[in-house]
Amino acid sequence: MSRPEHIAPPEIFYGDDEARKYTDNSRITAIQAEMAYRALELLNLTEGPKYLLDIGCGSGLSGEILEEEGHIWVGMDISPSMLDIANEREVEGDLFLQDAGQGLGFRPGTFDGCISISVLQWLCNADKTINRPKARLQRFFSTLYASLNKGARAIFQFYPENDDQIELITDTATKCGFEGGLLVDYPNSKKAKKYYLCLFAGAQTGMKNSMPRALGEDGELHPDEARSIQFEKRRASTKRRKDRKSIKGKDWINKKKKIARERGDKVVANDSKFTGRKRKVRF
């Protein structure tokens, strides 16, 4: 299956139809919400409402999570169709039509944190002759660094195409002043494996930055996988019970009748061709 960024630029790929399908798909919205909650957890914010930036906000699915947690947010996206749907849904955040590869135009120290879900890999794609991935990443990370408060975090969930892409992204972010690195949740899972780039815009006074712990490092399963395994076990157990042959067949009945006759303490029915026959279900 082709990756979306190989099919068309994001502003074209996410046209009216695709933007609507993306937003109305219950499975996609559930996954988006899960990743947004995880990104918010990795931000490690202090108590109280914060001013956050959502890069590639789309139709506002991640922004709604920020709202639920009591934060104020600003969203930016390159797709006009996605932003139109966000306006239809009446999200609370301020929305901007902006190509992240052209840099951010916010004042220095504006935001207390930044999240981005499934966006970063798009900046690595040279979908136009004027687009040079390294230059676009450098412009993006340098302006993002300036727009964050000292010690703020930026969390990017993304789908890297290969190791070279990961190296390009992390090296460019480091050269622009960020600290941090790559975190991989559920690294041994094919379905639940998720990549998060955790970046620190400097360090707060008297504090040292440290990478958060990845989920599933100790072999723990994603909740969905754990439920799936339990379901498969129950289904296999049910199948074994159905396939198991009954021990109370004709031979077993005849043996019991023989023992009863030898004891002579009760009347035993005569043997016939119907002995041990399975009765049909009648309603």
Task: Kindly list the characteristics that best describe this protein.
single chain, 283 residues, alpha/beta, seven-stranded mixed sheet, 10 helices, 7 strands, elongated
Descriptive report:
Helix content is 41%, strand content 17%. It has helices at residues 4-7, 10-13, 16-24, 26-43, 61-68, 80-88, 133-147, 163-175, 223-243, 250-263, and strands spanning 51-55, 72-77, 94-97, 111-117, 148-158, 179-185, 194-200. It has a 7-stranded mixed β-sheet with strand order 3-2-1-4-5-7-6, sandwiched between helices. α7 (133-147) links the parallel β4 (111-117) and β5. α4 crosses α5 and α7 (133-147) packs across α8 (163-175). The model has no long low-confidence stretch (mean pLDDT 87).
Sheet with most strands: 7 strands, mixed
Oligomer class: single chain
Order of helices and strands: HHHHEHEHEEHEHEEHH
Radius of gyration: 30 Å
User: What is the helical fraction, as a range of percent?
Assistant: 40-55%
The total of helices stands at 10
Choose one word for the global shape.
Answer: elongated
User: Percent of residues in beta strands?
Assistant: 15-25%
**Average pLDDT value?**
87
Distance between the termini: 51 Å
Number of strands: 7
Classify the secondary structure makeup into a structural class. alpha/beta
Low-confidence blocks of residues: none
Spatial ordering of strands, largest sheet? 3-2-1-4-5-7-6
